[in-house]
Recover the amino acids of this structure.
């Protein structure tokens, strides 16, 4: 079984500042890693994914994440945030070689202000 | 229409009612999922259907009954729910063997009164 920990429930940041949302996972097998974003009253939208290969993955809206196997982390970063990035961000894992059954973290609320 | 569509978007029901949530995917995927999103809790996987067969039921109470009549449609039948069942119910789909990426619908906000 896997688990995902998002230690920061809320992250306030000023517009144009950089941001990092932390994600750590635990699993006894190889995993795929994902970040999803949820805007108010909407479903989840895939930001980026790590399946294999390069440990630095780039996603939509200028976000990127780095897979660190030794630290079992998959932190999400953006060098300069916008007001429109205000949303809930979820880190998720699934076992490789299986149907896409996702285990989610509790989410991090990113609040961008002027 | 593309993507994953869920209806209704909002639903209020009494504890003795029977209702159904509907999910339709237009992506040609062969696996579909129900997730529950409650306040202050991680999203919980409820049911998984692969090639129209239920492959997982994560200890979900019997008052939730899923149905997958074909690879494009997924239902969640609800009866005698409890107030703690109030949540956002999200449907997702993916292509087994074609990449483990799920596409989510916008969800049904369920309130049990």
């Amino acid at each position: 079984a896997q688990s995902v920990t998002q230690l920061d429930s809320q992250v306030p940041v000023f517009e144009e500042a950089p941001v990092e949302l932390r994600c750590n996972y635990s699993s006894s097998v190889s995993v795929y890693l994902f970040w999803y974003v949820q805007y108010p009253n909407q479903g989840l939208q895939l930001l980026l994914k790590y399946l294999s290969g390069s440990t630095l993955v780039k996603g939509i809206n200028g976000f990127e994440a780095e897979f660190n196997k030794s630290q079992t982390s998959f932190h999400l970063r953006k060098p300069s945030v916008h007001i429109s990035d205000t949303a809930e961000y979820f880190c998720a894992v699934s076992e490789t070689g299986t149907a896409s059954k996702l285990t989610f973290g509790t989410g991090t609320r990113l609040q961008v202000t002027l | 229409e593309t993507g994953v569509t869920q209806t209704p978007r909002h639903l209020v029901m009494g504890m003795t009612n029977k209702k159904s949530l509907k999910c339709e995917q237009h992506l040609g995927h062969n696996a579909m999922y129900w997730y529950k999103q409650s306040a202050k809790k991680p999203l919980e996987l409820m049911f998984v259907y692969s090639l129209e067969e239920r492959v997982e039921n994560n200890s979900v109470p019997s008052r939730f009954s899923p149905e997958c009549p074909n690879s494009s449609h997924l239902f969640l039948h609800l009866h005698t729910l409890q107030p703690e069942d109030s949540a956002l119910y999200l449907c997702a789909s993916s292509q087994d063997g074609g990449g483990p990426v799920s596409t989510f619908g916008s969800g049904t906000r369920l309130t049990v009164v």
Q: What stands out?
A: The CA atoms of residues 24 and 73 of chain B lie 5 Å apart. The longest strand of chain B covers residues 18-25.
